[in-house]
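Hi D.,

Good news: the full-assembly prediction came through. Inputs first.
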Amino acid sequence: MLFKLDSFTLIGIDAIKVSVEVHISRGLPEFIIVGLPGKAVNESRQRVRSAIINSGFDFPVKKIIVNLSPADIKKDGSYYDLPIALSILAASGQIGCGMFNESCFIGELSLDGSINPVKGLISMAEKAQSMDKKFFFVPYEIANQASFISGVSIVACKSLVETVKVLTGGEQIEKFICKDKEKNISNRNNHYNFDLKDVKGQLKAKRALEIAVSGRHNIMLIGPPGSGKTMLAQRAVSIMPDLNLEECIEVTKIYSLYEKYVNHLIQERPFRNPHHTISRVGLVGGGINPRPGEISLAHRGLLFLDEFSQFPKNFIEDLRQPLENKAVIITRNNLSYSFPCNFMLIVATNPCYCGYFGDEGRKCICSLREVRKFWKKISGPIIDRIDMRVTVARLKESSFIKTECGESSNQIKNRIKKCINMQNERFKGKNVSYNSEIGINIINEWLKNNKNIRDLIYTISRKYNLTARGMVSILKVSRTIADLEESENIKDCHIIEAVHYRVGSNNLDNSICV
Amino acid sequence: MKSSNGKKILYILVEKKVKPARFIEIYRRNYGDINKTLDYFYKYKSLKLEYKTNGEDHIDFNHSNNCYQEVVDFILKNEVGLLDIGENSYPDILRQIYLPPPLLFFRGNKIKKAQFSIAIVGSRKCTAYGREVAGYISRNLSRIGITVVSGLAVGIDSYAHKAALEGKGGSIGVLGCGIDIIYPPENKYLYEEILSNGSIITEFLPETPPLKNNFPVRNRIISGLCRGVVVIEAGEKSGAIITCEMALQQNREVFAIPGNVFNPMSRGCHKLIKSGAKLVESIDDILEEFSQYSGGILKLCGNSGYNNNRQANDKQSANLDNNELKVYEFIGYNPKSVEEIVKYSKIEVKEVLRILTSLEIKQLIKEDSFNKYSSLF
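Then the structure:
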């Protein structure tokens, strides 16, 4: 007797269909799984057998062959326990129902027949939707993760017995369909632990963060120890606009790969802050069974690299291509995995080894050579991709004890939302969504139409000795400043302010290649 | 190669391993007749004269392993000139020092033309103030035709060079290594710029690395080429102070720029002033000392100190709007942070940032330390 049902496997963050085929025939009792099963899949034979018996069904004493098709893709993980168990029950005639055709299954079985969570559920639900399936049977604990996928009903069952009951009509299926979807995601009230109003002083840095987030410009914070760089970066995520549903799903997809117990749709902007001792694979992603790295976990959110200069140089270089392509492609064995990584980068660094170069209070004890050596490590192509560099000075005692606070994150967030809407409207239909992504062709158009800007740019680049790349960055940032002020055209004052975030400190000019 | 004498001297120094000090001794014995000197070395090459100098013959010319032919090939290929002590264009003032270099490698022709030079030396790690002063003094000197000599190091040296290149005086950089070695590497572009209106000279053979010992040796040429040495920001024990000692031995004038009492970098200059160096506020303080030497080419510029009215003049000429004026007047000479400015002026941050950059572009203020601004001197 032959039986087939549909399940999934993951390649990168995308699910592909796997049919689980079971053939039960006469012969010596045997239970074989073919179709490039990994260790975990092979072990599922023991789990399935025990689960079936402990759920009160019969495990057929016959020759059982399970094939996972397509048979040439390696499969690993405990995804197929539930589908295999159900197929065996169906193939041995213990259950029978028409619902199998419009359903797909995923889940790990425990020996007593209960269903345990697996990774990557939401990607599979998406695939189920594109396959026009009606029901997707998933582990109960994490069902909410996938519930926002429209078009397919997520059926959350706790055990094999329950699943069988639902399939054979013993229980109403509606009772098990996950209804989290009906909650409106726009009504949520995201709570971040940090608020920008906690930061005292640092008006320049706050303003710079607002601009950076608005135009999704990468930003570098330079300052002596204790000046508040980390504090500022942690709060940057609280001024980013909320994720829309599509983005939430993207983020949840990645996180569901990373850990099993994601039991809801992730709605907060991710904020990743890896320590500088991180491994290369940990940062970019990879491994034998490729997993997303920190850059992908920061997708649609913030990647904050504190003590940037402490990261190994080649790791820093690894960020180049992902920053450009907004995705990282990892090739292992014979497959390429693509993980999205559309993140905003904030890096923080001291200005030199001792940390006090350019500080007012304490004297820097580094030689100029050492300062240059320090900067040599991170200058170059990577620094070109960082549009804004802002110096953060240490707070004076007098301003520290003051209690008045500045604007709250929510106020700033509202302005940023407007600014992003403006950008979206302008770039509608183009392959760009933020000012930081615009190409030289658009910039040329601005320059062509405005002689004032050309003159000003000329003066500025002479004065500050800027490269062409530096000028492009300044123009991009000034476009964002203009958007914040809802101005149609870039004006002189926008450019002049943008210069402020590029040149940073005169003191550092000699060291950093602008 | 024009100067065949140069090649001969090179041959004597490199192949025969005659120390420069001995060469100079023989040169002086022959009353400065270069041909007789050369004859001496060619004819009596076997003659060994026990000759002791006062510790200064540690100038080991031969750090590089170059043989004579290699050096000649090198200078031909790279358009490096040789200037020997016998030539007319060899600076007279340098010839008079205790141990002049018998042979100079040079690029750029300024060394032959410079009539009157002043050295500007100072710390490699200078403050914003030192940078301003170096530029201010150097630019003004160069403007009236005085050549500024310095050591092509980073810090004060490079700012002095850069500013001097703007005027007709130009600049001469003296190296402590072979002429083919760019040290420090940061000054790569400065090298090229200097060649446009100045020259780079060294007494060391090509490929000589920048060894520690070379620099005091090099300093004697810096002071030797000049009538006076201006010190800007020097630590208590520094290369600049060594140059001053050399200058005094060579009977040159020593000038020092005063600095902030609290800044350790002023210590050296203040010590010099206490022991008799002339305090300099503007180039007139320097020029005064030379009214008798210069044969009338130097005239006092008529401003005895820094023009304090400049602030007022600048303000008018720069066309500041109301807010800009308010911020500019508030900033003053004591560094003010962005926060202070915002608080005082009650202008929005973004506007303040814009004003600061705009004032900076107009050369009215500068960033002192992180996010702190003060008026430009």
